[in-house]
Amino acid sequence: QVQVVESGGGLVQPGGSLRLSCAASGRTFSAYAMGWFRQAPGKDREFVGSMRWSGGTTYYADSVKGRFSISRARAGYTMYLQMNNLTPEDTAVYYCAAHRTGASGYDVWGQGTQVTVSS
Of 12, 92, 99, 106, which cross-links 16 as Cys (Cβ 3.0–4.6 Å)? Predict the structure, then answer.
C-alpha cells in the first residue's frame, strides 16, 4: 500500500522558520515528482512547490519564492519543505503529494499538517 505522511507542523511566530517532512512509502512506489500544497481556511488548495524526482529540479509558487525551499533525503522518497520568514498569510494545512510514475498528476496525498503563524 502506497502512502504519504507529512510531519513537522506547528505554531510559529511571524518571521520564524519551520521545516516540514514528507515520507512516501510502498513496496512498488516510484515517483515522477513530489509536491507541497496548502489550504488556508475558506480558500482553495494551492500549489506551494514541487521537485521533479529525477534531477531534483524544483518549482515554487511566487508567494513563497525566496522564503521556502524544497530538498530531499539521499535515499528513499523523503522530501523536506524549509519555510523561512513566515507570515500569518502562510497559515494553512500543508499537504504533501506524490505524482507517481505513469500517473497523470498528483495521485497520492498525505493527511496534511497544520502550520499556524501567529504572535
Answer: 12
